[in-house]
């Protein structure tokens, strides 16, 4: 779910790129747009969506609440509505960092096991 280093330079991401980041299908992203007013990518000709980094962070928030914490859509909407100070966003950032550290430690462990 982390943004690729090469993609950090992009201003806009397609719906297929965002779906791939979160390992969900495009239909789910379009559904979440209807259910969560905080997800609003730019739409250009023929309904083509362009997601900004801010849009992706909103998708990340919804993904975390619904897919990782198991909240209902209504519960996630309430949590977002009451999340005025951005605490959930900070929690997600910490979780993402910890996942990265875990992956690095697992890779180190595998390398060390290969040396033995």
Please characterize this protein's 3D structure.
α3 packs across α4. The protein has a domain at 6-84: Multidrug-efflux Transporter Regulator, Chain: A, Domain 2 (Orthogonal Bundle), CATH 1.10.1660.10. With 116 residues, the protein is mainly alpha-helical. The chain contains five helices and two strands.
Which features characterize this protein?
Multidrug-efflux Transporter Regulator, Chain: A, Domain 2; two-stranded antiparallel ribbon; mainly alpha; 116 residues; 5 helices
Spell out the blueprint of helices and strands:
Blueprint (H helix, E strand, L loop, with lengths): L14 H8 L3 H10 L6 E3 L3 E3 L2 H16 L4 H9 L5 H29 L1
Antiparallel strand pairs: 1-2
Helix pairs in contact: 3-4
What's the CATH class of one domain, please? Mainly Alpha
Give the strand tally: 2
The gross shape turns out to be: globular
Mind telling me the C-alpha Rg?
16 Å
Low-confidence stretches: none
* Beta-strand share of residues: 5-15%
Order of helices and strands: HHEEHHH
Briefly note the CATH topology name of one domain.
Answer: Multidrug-efflux Transporter Regulator, Chain: A, Domain 2
Largest sheet: 2 strands, antiparallel
What is the structural class?
mainly alpha
Query: What value does the average pLDDT take?
Result: 85
* C-alpha termini separation: 32 Å
Instruction: Please state the oligomeric state of the protein chains shown.
Output: single chain
Instruction: Give the fraction of residues assigned to helices.
Output: 55-70%
CATH architecture of one domain: Orthogonal Bundle
Widest sheet: strand order?
1-2
The helix tally amounts to: 5
